[in-house]
## 1
Amino acid sequence: MTIGIGGAGSKIAAKLDSQAILVNVSETELNKVPGGARRILASVHATRGQFRGSRKNPQIGLDAYQSVRRELLELARGNMVFCSSGGGTGNGITTGLLQDLSQATDIDTANKTFFGIILPYAKLESNEFVNNTIEFLTGPLAEAIDSGNTGNIVLFSNKKKFEEKLSEDSYNQQLVESLKLFLSIPDKNDVYRLLDGHIDHEDFALFISKPYFNHFTFLEYDPAIPFGKQLEANSNPLLLEPEAAIEALFLLEVPRGGDPSMFYDILEYFSEKNVSPIYSVVENPDRQKPFVTVALLYSRKPAELVDDFNRITEQHVQAKVKKSLDQNVVLHKLDVNMEQEARRAVKQRGDTEDVLATLRRLGKL
Amino acid sequence: MPQSSQDNSKLFDEQVSRLHELHYLVLFWAAQGEGRGCKYNITNCFDDMKSAGVTRTKQTAVAAIEGLATLCFIDVREERNRKNIYITRYGAKALEALVMNNQFQPKPSAFLEEQ
């Protein structure tokens, strides 16, 4: 079962799963999303009815979470949750959910929640989205990862959408198709003739219940080219770039009569990285060329994730601040204290002498 | 034909005389960073240049770094997805010459001050 929280999360959940449960704080928004089997309106105290959204304010989402807390915690167990980190509803309600999951002590492997989080593209999306995301990554998400109570966390990036100027619908479609391909791995093991290895539903469920970031991708495998190079060239453009893998899973589909032993090259690649993947090789008569679906589990400190975000944000904000300063220049009278200036000059001279001493110490001079 | 040490020294002086404040700051911060044992990368360098008010564009920052790397004054090594800057012995000599000439004034690196 899939749960979509907020506008963006609901659209993806409904596209992925006809039985999806959609959650929003605005009745209007909730009714706009086509599909889904059930809609839950999280209530906020409002004198004018609940037709307004959370207006990019995660606190409104977090307040509304209290009204659906018990139900959502129950529904999220062992299921998938999609949300965006930029707006108010997805961010706020998921914040509440992650905080509760972090403190829970009774979540076993089968009941862990798989999270799909859509991050805004900092360069072109509004500051509120980016700031909300930074708070989300450093706060509740960091806490939840540390607790080990979540399953895989997939970080989607809106970068491709903005760079390729895709419509929201076609971007969501690509995202859902990509996800379906990844989630179909155990089904393919059931349907197609198994040539080597095995990933059954239990193996797959165990894999996606591990509390790491997941980067999954697909490629047509050419045995003549080293697997590492192909993997690097084919990282999933819808997701954030992965760090070094801790665990991995791959499914190799070979065409009818194809050579199944080529999976050893992939195993060798992972063995060089000290990773022992779970894998499976199947014969898929519909394929013309070998096709690999890979998922890498990696760990990344939220602070590092935020580093990349901050860098773009700060440049963005600085540019805006600079622009407004340029337009409104007030000249202040400067009171220069000569004694302080002299001290500063001495300190500065000290800096240059220090650096030469440092270079000597390092044996470079 | 092997070059004489006089030729080498002329070339070195010529190279140093063509360096701008931007180059001086990159060498200075890279040396300071190395002295403190922290990795100083291209992005940190660009952020520092911006906060020091010497440039506003990444292209200029990258051009300065690439120029120094071409002159063998610095090594730029790709480590864990970051391009870290290391001053070479040759670069250390160039920085020494710039400091002795008192041509430029150092500016604080926001990144290194935070460390």
Note: The interface with chain A takes residues 28, 31-32, 34-35, 43, 47, 50, 81, 87-89, 91-93, 95-96, 99, 105-106 of chain B (CB under 8 Å).
## 2
Amino acid sequence: MSQTDCRHKWMMANVRDGYLVTEGCYHCLNRISFFSGEPVPPVESYHEGDHFWNYLGSAQASKFDLRCGACGTQVPLKELMALMLCVGCDPTCGVYKVGHSDRERRTWVYVALCADTSHASGACVPDEGVRALNAYYQGESGDPQRITVVPCRLRRSVDSCQGIVLADTGLTELY
Amino acid sequence: MTTSALIERLGLKTFNEQGDKEIRGVYISDMVSDIIGIKEGNLLVTLQTHKNLIAAANLVDVAAVVYARGKVPPDDVVALANRAKIRLLGYDQDTWTLAKSLFELGVR
């Protein structure tokens, strides 16, 4: 079967465990994130051009790609740092509008978070990756009414966003 | 087996009331980053009562969440589960004892 004819059946591939690390620059106040596969996440501050990046926090997380079990097509998700559930905190936010566009049914919107948290560079998770994530999480029914994944460039503000990031925070509260 | 039948057979606590669902499998994990890769319809057994777990459980459309070892979810977690129509259940004994009971009931 050719890749263009395939009705892809996505599955996770290249699953890596590590840490989602967030840093902030004291000068421009932008924030960035990256995935670290180190046993302990790096916390050192460092200069990068005009930026002075400082560690803000980290949480255990997984990175993965998606691969079609039928034709073998692989979608690398190297820009994806984590997924986040929109809790509908801001009606002026682009993510909120996606979730509330259908008044009859409430769609759960998950935001694909990229490394450029403040979007200073304008880069985000590519459309191909967002399409594959939607196909994967909407399952066999392909029902966009229940789950929709959108890129984080739709988010109005990283500072006021109250979304729930799907990373392992609070594990130390287990016992 | 359905979630209602399981509640009855194992005497599980219920932290909220939601519709009945068919259980297609069982997954045991306390890590959100692990749960986001499971198939829909699983009974999720965990110790983790953090809100993040409900956000992940909703993404993968679990049949229900069972908190083992007497763990009790906070009110805001129950509220989010209600919005997501996820049934939250409780089991007083440890995860291994629950796993054995599920296996003996044919929930695999």
Note: The helical segments of chain A are 94-99, 127-138.
## 3
Amino acid sequence: MKIKGLVIFIFLFTFNFNYSVCAVEPSKFISKITGKASSILASSDTKENKILKLKKIAADSVDIKGIGLYTLGKHRKLISESQKSTYNNLFREYFLKSFSNRLVDYSDPKIEVKSEEKLSEKYTIVRSILVATDKRPEVKLDWRVYTKDPNNPLIRDLVIEGLSLARTQKEEFNSIIISNNNGIDALFENLIEFNK
Amino acid sequence: MKKILYLIILFSFISFSANASDESNENLKDCWKGFNKATFALNQALDGILFEPIARGYRHLPAGIRYGTSNMVSNISNLVTIPNNLLQGDFKSAVNNSMRLIVNTTLGIVGIFDVASSLGLEQLDREDYGQTLASWGMESGCYIVLPILGPSTARDAVGHTINFLGGDPWYNITSKNDTRYFKDSDYFISKMTDGVDFRAKNIEAFDSVEKNSVDFYASVKSLYLQDRERKISNSGVITDAMDDSDWEDIEIK
């Protein structure tokens, strides 16, 4: 009986130990990504190489497909599977280009992670700041991290001074779709044009 | 009497705006899209040939001059913020901002130096009549793009108007009443400086939004409305910007 209890104890201990070792803390996850991005941007690499490396970081750490579907809002339930597939491909390309474009002009951004707040089992908000320079003031950056799989956290939104990029994108896409009689094709055309 | 009539007309305009929406989405009350897009294009053109070049030039001034200028216009803005703190029942902030105004205007030499912050008086967000009307429960009405002033809502446009109807003590002493100490131009120069200072601090952010938008007009509208929501709620919890339920059925990867 004692042996059985001991086996259960060892099993539980090992399980918990493995869990705590493998789970990635969201704030460390963000620190690691922003550190990588900063060193790429501070390097003497060519602009094209920097863009490629930044795209790789985004592809590994951002839930692009999830953001894409969120961005479609109510329209995601109204389009066919084939349209959804076209959209996913176009959105991925759009997101990576827009993400790397936004960052590549910063020469050496310094991001300091300040704290994290667990909203639920699925979401943690990591609070950070973009350190002020002589030209611009300090900027608050909050990262919405999807932690359903604690070993593989993914970024789902970046909130800059209270302004959500995902929500802005959602309202932008919605405006294009509504202006074109709820047709998704106009959005596809805009994305194709942007991705050129 | 004229003022009251003017306000009645403006308030009727808001009620009309709130009902005239051509969008089913409550968040998208863009009643005069054609007019707004034309004004937006005009503002973009003015920005390209006037405001952005001035803001870029302003950035070349020594940092000390820029900080001093920024502090001074921020200090003046307390004259509108304080009555709005009171109207919103936020007496603690009203006391804080009043103390800041007194300390910075005197010890800080007309607001050039932010002595108040070093004395522990925190710099809080600005408040305006649009925010006060919202805190009293007034709906935002239609989205509107004003020439030069940029994105607004019918409610916020009423807020701007209240400044000129006696709500802005700085306007009252510089322009509305002849106090002998100030000229009309003092008011407009301070407002323009405030705008240039804001534009100079956000050159990269504006460029980035413009360069990476598939619909720049819609992006600016969304960013403006989110910013107003945050300011009206006076919320430090900035993650409220997005409702979790929107993500509910997205379970992938």
Note: The longest helix of chain B spans residues 33-59.
## 4
Amino acid sequence: MSETTQAPLTTEEIVVNLGPQHPSTHGVMHFVVTIDGETIRECVPHIGYLHSSLEKIAETLRYEQFITNTDRFDYLNGLGNELCYVQAVERLLGIEPPPRTVFIRTLMAELKRISSHLVYLGCYGNDIGAMTVFLHAFREREPLMDMFEAVTGGRLLYNYLRIGGLRNDLPTGFTDQLHRFLDYLPRRLEEMNDLLTSNRIFIARTRGIGILTARQALSFGVTGPTLRGCGVPYDLRKLRPYAAYDQVEFDVPSFPEGDCLARHLVRMEEMNQSMRIIRQLMEKMPEGEIQADVPRRIKPEAGEVYERVESPRGELGCYLLSDGGAKPYRMHWRGPSFYNLQALPVMVRGGLLADFIATLGSLDPIAPDIDR
Amino acid sequence: MTDSTNDTGLIAAAGQDNSDIADNLREQFGEQIHNAEIEDDTLQVEVAAEIILVVCRHLSTEIERPYPYLSDAFGVDCGDHLQVVYHLIRSETADGAFVRVNLPRNEATLPTLTALYNTANWAEREIAEMFGVTFAGHPDPRHLLLPEGWQGYPLRKDYQRPDHPYLASEPLHEDPSVFLASGPQFETTEE
């Protein structure tokens, strides 16, 4: 009876596929995670599922035709992407947009930042198991969507900015709509902070999780709230002001911890700062034209620009090379999510599998922004 | 931003006057670099492929006010040759430097910069598959956005679209010991 030999207890590493279809990966991404028990040993991201060859398509479209495509890669920051693109083309052409246009563009970009951070907030709550926050955040986002619809006609894809101008001015009643929202949102954010940010379970799931040091973040090209959550106050709106950002006062929140909680706190505070910017923009909003004189056929002289703006996810770059024709000879986009995601393996290695989604969600990645 | 910006004490204090860096590069590398100049406070320099690693190390670690980080890298098909552009930055001021390398179309090879910057890993993989540039010594030279085995280099100007849809030939992982499907109902999505 005692003949039965028991094999010695062994452990082995197993491979877990997260994605490509996974409710918490924020789009189509695939991670091959090697785990030893519950601990992540290695994580290899596979991207490209949503690659749409945007840069190649751009070479077949005239400058003014491409604006509508800019909404589509980082779809939570449509107006911000349009801003980056039209600024790049305007710099190529040497056109200065009218002051009112610049203010409205900045206003829309900041509204978009709040809207994007609200989506982050909702999804992140969802990711770590606080579904209520998801519903609340999307409810608060609704008045924003109504405003975008009133101004641009679209709720997600806008095609609102024009080279040297805007499609139309702000509609009547917009100011009231905006002020109602600005009066209402701070209370709601406080409520959500009570619900989520100061919740014990939330803190337990995010503090000290997914740590990225400032040095690692910078060497991986991480930008945006993720970098500011490592204590580096890198914000292009402040460091290289574009649009109307040099005419408003705001702070760049940063938290030194480098964990999921720090990144969350940065975004929560950024919404307050965005509201501060929007109030100042509305106060100082100049009257006047919204369209600069632009040649009928847009044909920039041969040359190149690299335009950078601060998207809700980080540094968005647009490189344009003109050969003097009506279509860009080459267009390249630096998607902030692309480089942010590259740092993910460093953040999850050695952590628990259960914290993987919490870490991924804290990067706020947008899959088409990664794959372009 | 030209001279007028440099006159304000604030900008000078932030160390944005970069004109000496172009001079420094010319002194250091002589004939091997071209068109080193400052435009809008941004350094623009064209270097020979053989010294790209040395120049980047120099710019990132050895000069007085270095550009320690790689922000972005991309390729350009210039017709008779290919170009790879590196965008180096400073994190304190967001100042940038563009370092360019021209490469022959047939034999486009560059040393990898992954030892200097982690950013270079994915950026180089994308340039490699889109432009057909080989990055010698790259630690992970697989395709990034395109499936393995994709024919041709899509962002080259002479790229011919295949006349049949692409079918992936191999699974991503040939012999994984276990497949665990996490989801579609995943525990973290439940309250």
Note: Chain A touches chain B through 55 residues (CB under 8 Å).
